[in-house]
Amino acid sequence: MIKIMQDLEYIFxxxxxxxxxxxxxxxxxxxxxxxxxxxxxxxxxxxxxNPKASEILGLKSYPKIGDIAGSxxxxxxxxxxxxxxxxxxxxxxxxxxxxxxxxGRLAETGEEESIRLEEEIAHAAQKNKIRLIGPNCMxxxxxxEGISFSANFPKEGxxxxxxxxxxxxxxEVVYRGGxxxxxxxxxxxxxxxxxxxxxxxxxxLAHDPETKIISVYIEGVRDTKHFPHVxxxxxxxxxxxxxxxxxxxxxxxxxxxxxASLAGxxxxxxxxxxxxxxxxxxxxxxxxxxxxxxxFLSPLKGRxxxxxxxxxxxxxxxxxxxxxxxxxxxxxxxxxxxxxxxxFPHEGNLIKNPIDLSVTAEGAGIMLEALLYAxxxxxxxxxxxxxxxxxxxxxxxESIEWQGMFQxxxxxxxxxxxxxxxxxxxxxxxADSPEEWRWKSIVTEQxxxxxxxxxxxxxxxxxAKAISEVVKYNLSNAxxx
Amino acid sequence: MIKIMQDLEYIFxxxxxxxxxxxxxxxxxxxxxxxxxxxxxxxxxxxxxNPKASEILGLKSYPKIGDIAGSxxxxxxxxxxxxxxxxxxxxxxxxxxxxxxxxGRLAETGEEESIRLEEEIAHAAQKNKIRLIGPNCMxxxxxxEGISFSANFPKEGxxxxxxxxxxxxxxEVVYRGGxxxxxxxxxxxxxxxxxxxxxxxxxxLAHDPETKIISVYIEGVRDTKHFPHVxxxxxxxxxxxxxxxxxxxxxxxxxxxxxASLAGxxxxxxxxxxxxxxxxxxxxxxxxxxxxxxxFLSPLKGRxxxxxxxxxxxxxxxxxxxxxxxxxxxxxxxxxxxxxxxxFPHEGNLIKNPIDLSVTAEGAGIMLEALLYAxxxxxxxxxxxxxxxxxxxxxxxESIEWQGMFQxxxxxxxxxxxxxxxxxxxxxxxADSPEEWRWKSIVTEQxxxxxxxxxxxxxxxxxAKAISEVVKYNLSNAxxx
Lengths: 481, 481
Prior knowledge:
Strand order of the largest sheet of chain A: 8-10-9-11-12-13
Largest interface: A-B, 99 and 99 residues
Mean pLDDT of chain A: 92
Low-confidence stretches of chain A: none
Oligomer: homodimer
Helix content of chain A: 40-55%
CATH topology of the largest domain in chain A: Rossmann fold
Largest sheet of chain A: 6 strands, mixed
Structural class of chain A: alpha/beta
Shape of chain A: elongated
Strand content of chain A: 5-15%
Number of domains of chain A: 3
Distance between the termini of chain A: 26 Å
Number of helices of chain A: 17
């Protein structure tokens, strides 16, 4: 256990990285790795290795690992699989601690020869005390150390860890999550897991002081003996969210050709997760929603929501979708009703939960003041656990002249959220408008909410589902402890 | 029945519209109605009515309805509720055929006095043979005639009708749906339904030659006696999609303060829909997804999908989410496997369903040619009912230099879709990136797919769910007939 923690410390904090297969061609991954390490400000040494180039991206390039004068902690390999046995040999001489294999076309092909080659490589690495990440993976994103495999990921670090057997899912979770305010401690795309596997990484993340929330995308468990215990241990220490790939017949077939994993039985998996007390996500989008909820809204102590929407149909939808997804939208308590009546004799009893903000429009005539006061009362009241506010983008941003009103609504939500002690979620539709002004306006207000510390969800159903999962987790956790 | 069809023909095709409460203030709805009618090119007469203005938006304004020289078919009212009895009187003298009441603060307030006023108005209108739409609604969008209540709606007409008790939902369905290629025959926001109600409109739409697909958002049924029969009749004639507001306790409370409706029992509602053979949507987003599916992918005859994704994890997710949502992702049939092996001896047996397009990347080395051929074979094969292709935006649009590759993938999907007789759906994540180039690139490619006749879905789960609902509908329809 101490040994593995040390090995992984080296991997996440190398003093030098060699990219074997580094390239001068910007379309090659061997170019991208070098470029992105520089862009992210990795402070250790970067050594491109390529038999044919003397310089790559302004860095001296070496024909082979052995030609590098200084020591090499960590190697990224983008060379074809056939070159790996020789690479391991060279790395051994150079006392490299770990190799990450972007290199693929190994066991995942299902071909006997490739499966044998992967085993051979894993064996050689083990014999030489070299740890392997992969093959068939993107490797490590550790923003604090300036290590990344995508130019799009946030440069700033955070406290969410994501361990993923799929590279594609890391792009989706880190990029999409980043836009929604998630910041990551460590992200690992670990592919076929021929050496370091889910048990090693989850154990490390459970003890990693940078990591407060663990998320995992897994296709098949390599170390079935230790996995249940390690998962339980992690979930006891930190909120742990898992998305399982290959839960259906077709998914399970896809898993075997993706990372050469055995998907296993869904029923056993579900039981394991229940016992360990982890949160299961159904889709990548739901995983991001849950991570956003855990990052921004903790602690959530119950499911009673005060809802403010900006329209009649929207209010009905918010109420239905909250309740359909496991939250409750209680009527306003009698003391709030009495207080509203006292202050607003004519309008007080027209205000309900959900609060329909559109009734301030001409003709309806309920004063905004009364609605805001109702929101404040809900925000303070012990019979509510959280607030959800909908900005009703479609209606409010109908015309470019109304951008100010949209900003005003968002500012109002933020103010109420800041003055209250309640967790508050904001629903704002995606900024996917073909009109530039509307796209820009939504992106700007999203960013404003996130900066103010409030999470954004693209639909009320997605907000309610994720919040409900986290409440369930918190409540059952409270029971266990 | 013939009478009601005639009344509604007048409403959808008026020769003249008076906006009572027209305003010179761009923030008022009384300004917007006039402005939008002009913007949409309504060819009949537009008469602003306002006791204090002589001209609004360049049009002569009249102190009252009676001062207009020509005849007035249709009146839009934005005046306060208290002015309505007098308005009905004036409209009666002027032989107005219909009034749409944007005017709210009537029965939906729950106040006795307002409920009585709404009844009084409905009674006066009926006595004077004036039909009412609303109160508390946005009215009519009939693009073919240049009638609209939102500047954002498509100017071009189509064949989808949407009847909605919520104005907010019309903004969402028409705007969001419009961006995804839906075009509408007629959209009606009908609010409290004090006169014309769901039965009148659904019956009209069932017989309307412009309308091929009917969609309905309903909070409470006013005419419970005729509703089941009319719904059944409509669903027998055209695909009919319904979203019910107020299916939960909280939703049902919200419904009563939104449109003064009684939400009714969920169980009875579900049975009614099942018997009538309508498609039920759970959320507004799902309603849009289903309408997109019905518009672009008919006829869908089965649930066997050939899937092409652009990544390993993405392929697993596509397989899982298709099967979790009621579609099936069968293994490649033996004749396709044999054909692939024959043409591509080394790679043929590595290709599966889902097809993982990322394996063309360096190192993996399966030729794009082989994958494309596999897609073509699936597209032609009788054991597949449709294709779903995922553009894997996050991965492919990682860097601005890769826009060309993204375009290439979309072009390839479109080509395969065009050459094949199979329905084909494209999954493309929302264009909600904060980077302008990425937003623009996605918006452009979305538009390209739609122009080529292929529907866009933001996630595979949403695509699979909507497609599955439509397949279920088609199969049970085939059984019934």
